[in-house]
Amino acid sequence: MSLAIYAAGALCWRVVDEKIVVLVVHRTKYGDVTIPKGKVDPGETLPATAVREIREETGLAIALGVPLGVSSYPLSSGREKIVHYWAAEVDDHAIEQSTFVPNSEIAAIEWVSLKKARGYLTYERDVEILDAFEALVRQGITSTFALIALRHGKAEPRGDWDGTDASRPLTERGVRQAAGDVPTLMAWRPRRIITSDAVRCVATVAPLAAATGIKPRREPGISQDAYEEGRGDVRSVIGKRVRSRKSAVLCSHGPVLPEIMREIALATGTMPGAYLNDAADLDTGGFSVVHLSATNPSSGIVSIETYAPAAG
């Protein structure tokens, strides 16, 4: 059986005259109207693909919002194409900075109402993605932000380390994991980086800090030492992040991650469940992206995505 082809895209949206409009593209080669998307490059993750393809096809720099679903369909070659989609709010700055010009792939881009898009899109599978977005709109969930719970990269084992637990460094594998996570983490355009003060956590977020120019904030309250000694302060750290409504990366430790997930649920009035433990059960260098509504706090956790480390 031939291998599937993976692709990713985004349903870009903005508010114009108090009405939501979405972006469709008119493709030159196929003469169709569709949602922008493109194939995954070797070594690239799906979120990174979605951001890159939107930039290449529409000239817009975006941050991903909530996942909207997956389309799969057969190609003429007999292979299956599987496309992952996210919502992506486009701000005025991105519009002003757009570099789009008609090209051999995209003849035109057009902002249209949800109603017009429904009759405009060539493929029913695209309408299904539009349906998923419209369901969020009906719930009052439009603008969202992400709290990304990141487990530090692989560290030197306790038994092999002479210093304190908090001073354990990353292994070479851990360093690769930390660097490899950066392109995917940047797909949600985090505005803050919060980290345990343990060396292995500070080192894990260093590549992301270098790539974004964001200075990490060290929070002893989410460290493993504080957790084990009963002086952790996860609740106030998470509460502050939920109130700020800005996307943030929080780098912590395996034993602390379940508490981080639980506090996000409590801070947003979300019913707890086994899904929180699943999202917290991360390999070193892995992370979970928790999507929250910036416009309707009572909606709780909108969705959670979990990613394995990109390298290592």
UniProtKB/TrEMBL annotation:
<protein>
    <submittedName>
        <fullName>NUDIX domain-containing protein</fullName>
    </submittedName>
</protein>
<dbReference type="GO" id="GO:0004081">
    <property type="term" value="F:bis(5'-nucleosyl)-tetraphosphatase (asymmetrical) activity"/>
</dbReference>
<dbReference type="GO" id="GO:0006754">
    <property type="term" value="P:ATP biosynthetic process"/>
</dbReference>
<dbReference type="InterPro" id="IPR015797">
    <property type="entry name" value="NUDIX_hydrolase-like_dom_sf"/>
</dbReference>
<dbReference type="InterPro" id="IPR020084">
    <property type="entry name" value="NUDIX_hydrolase_CS"/>
</dbReference>
<keyword id="KW-0378">Hydrolase</keyword>
<feature type="domain" description="Nudix hydrolase">
    <location>
        <begin position="5"/>
        <end position="135"/>
    </location>
</feature>
<dbReference type="InterPro" id="IPR051325">
    <property type="entry name" value="Nudix_hydrolase_domain"/>
</dbReference>
<dbReference type="Pfam" id="PF00293">
    <property type="entry name" value="NUDIX"/>
</dbReference>
<dbReference type="InterPro" id="IPR013078">
    <property type="entry name" value="His_Pase_superF_clade-1"/>
</dbReference>
<dbReference type="Pfam" id="PF00300">
    <property type="entry name" value="His_Phos_1"/>
</dbReference>
<dbReference type="InterPro" id="IPR029033">
    <property type="entry name" value="His_PPase_superfam"/>
</dbReference>
<dbReference type="GO" id="GO:0006167">
    <property type="term" value="P:AMP biosynthetic process"/>
</dbReference>
<dbReference type="InterPro" id="IPR000086">
    <property type="entry name" value="NUDIX_hydrolase_dom"/>
</dbReference>
